[in-house]
Amino acid sequence: MKGERQQDHNRDNGERPFKYSAADRALGVEMSQAASVASAAAEFITAEKGGRKEEPPGRTYLRRTGERPAFLVLREGQGDRPLLRDESEAFPAGPCLIRSEEWLQTPELAGLYESWLYSEDALQAERTLQRIYYRLRAASAALLESADSIWAAVTLLHTPELAVRPGKLKELQDVQLEALFAAVAANQRLGSDSRIDLLAPYPASSSEFAVQREFIEDVAEQTLGHAYAAACSIGASIAPGMPPAAAGEIARIADFLVLDGAAEPAAPEEPAAADFVLAAEAVLAAVRRVKPAAVVLAAGAPAAGALADLYRIGMSGIFCSAGQRTEALLRAACLTWMARQDNTGTAAEGWL
Questions:
Q1: CA dist., res. 32 & res. 220, Å (int)
Q2: Which of 117, 146, 189, 218 keeps 20 to 30 A from 331, CA to CA?
Q3: Which residues are bridge partners to 95 per DSSP?
Q4: What is the pLDDT of residues 195-249, one digit of tens each?
Q5: Regarding predicted confidence, which is higher, 126 or 69?
Q6: Are 136 and 103 in contact (CB under 8 A)?
Q7: pTM of the predicted structure, to 2 decimals
Q8: What is the arithmetic mean of pLDDT over 60-72?
Q9: In terms of Cα–Cα distance, which of 167, 84, 183, 99 is closest to 133?
Q10: Is 49 exposed, middle or buried (0-12, 13-18, 19+ CB in 10 A)?
Q11: Is 152:143 a contact under the CB 8 Å cutoff?
Q12: Are 23 and 51 in contact (CB under 8 A)?
């Protein structure tokens, strides 16, 4: 199976790390030289907005070994993105998380989706699914024309209604992937290069993720050819309640993991954040035992509330919404600055 071949490839050729620019690696050093936490935060946000050196959109996740890379604060959702892509914009440090379920909630798709899901007429359901395809292709084209197309991680469609109807789930995911890859192909013909990674939703085991990965690669190969399918980064969204050992096995064949706080019912903020951190710490330990260079990001409302603890345990970063991002950037800047100051002080004591 392709998932098993991927696992063997990872063992032979090392881990597939996360990509950082030179400015990202120098960011902590620059902040350690700042006069105060406030000035460090200002430098952090300035660099986040436009200080990175532009790079071509590579296809592998690179993670520098030997020192801790910058803690990433990445965007989730489409609320604050520019509507049109600026080709001169610097290459981002990580992807923007696009939850494709939000597409089903738009007025154009909500009625079609409900009609298809509960239709008892096979012919009518097929026609409705064809209309859904064109709507999803339009949504994909809009994504590729926006600033998020520089680097986006798109989730496969997964809803509570579809979770209990696996046949319908696979049918809709197939249509989504065809629409997305067809939009990518059209974009490539126009000479625009975009990086679109895929996230398989909530696999229960490594074997289930291997099946999901093979499914994505097959559709990509049919639509865009073998080269694109082989280069496409495919990660997994996992729920905080997943057994850590299972998460570690999934990490062996996944290019990256997203611990998704949105996978479970909402709870009061403080208990939710505390429980999320405990789950994240257990998952991260299990993942790093089998894949030390693994990239593990956090998403969902509990992630932003638990940023300090997620930084402390060594998570790669978080995705957060537009409303949470400014505060998260400031907190990450302060934590990075203080960590660099502690390291500088420890090094100075060694000379005394």
A1: 44
A2: 146
A3: none
A4: 899 999 999 999 999 999 999 999 999 988 887 877 789 999 999 999 999 999 9
A5: 126
A6: yes
A7: 0.77
A8: 61
A9: 183
A10: exposed
A11: yes
A12: yes
